[in-house]
Amino acid sequence: MIDHADDLVSVQAATERLLRAVGALDNAAVTQSSRLPGWTRGHVLTHLSRNADALVNVFEGRPMYASAEARDGDIEAGAPRPLDEQLADLRTSAERFQAAAEVPADWSRTVELRNGVTDRAARVPFRRWIEVELHHVDLGIGYELEDLPAAFTDRETGFLAARFDGHPDVPATTLTATDGRSWTTGGGADGGPVTVEGTPADLLGWLAGRRDGGALTVKGGDLPKLPPL
């Protein structure tokens, strides 16, 4: 059951954690490499700000981005900005997102995201929560997958498992976390069933493309190669 109001509270909490952590950086740190190939921390921060504005567009019935080129251009243009500008943009764009989400609306309606992807409006706050939490980790400033709220890790693992369910390149796979939770995914490729076991953080890291899966235990075959997100 999706509770968009509860997710909006979680987004606010995650954003405050991010703002506090980024506020402890300096200008030099913003220009240094993030954990995302080819992106500095400034790229990640600018992406988070523009993503908030893009989701405002989604709420208000406009295209998420004017174009892929415009999206990429905005990120490149904003990446070199000093820390104070990045922080101000991150804060005010987050406020615009929250304000747009508080406008009375039909949360059961279908909205369009990037690349023709559609979803229910009620899931947009969770999608923003994903952006804030995972990109906080991507900054490489001391916030790790193990630090994510357990409720988020559990839900995002299920979300990604569902995304790969039936994928033609992924064999039938059971994911088992050390806390006892389990999910199934894949099934569209030959082979399997494969069982992948590990900590909640390691399973999420593998599914989200943040870890190579080397810490996972695999039974019944090789570790499946997941398609890019």
TrEMBL record:
GO terms for molecular function: isomerase activity. Residues 174-194 are annotated as: Disordered. Keywords: Isomerase. The keyword Phosphoprotein does not apply. The keyword Isomerase applies. Residues 12-139 form the Mycothiol-dependent maleylpyruvate isomerase metal-binding domain. It comes from the Bacteria. Residues 174-184 have a biased composition (Polar residues). InterPro entries: DinB/YfiT-like, Maleyloyr_isom, MDMPI_C-term_domain, MDMPI_metal-binding, SCP2_sterol-bd_dom_sf. Residues 147-227 form the MDMPI C-terminal domain. This is Maleylpyruvate isomerase family mycothiol-dependent enzyme. It comes from Streptomyces lusitanus.
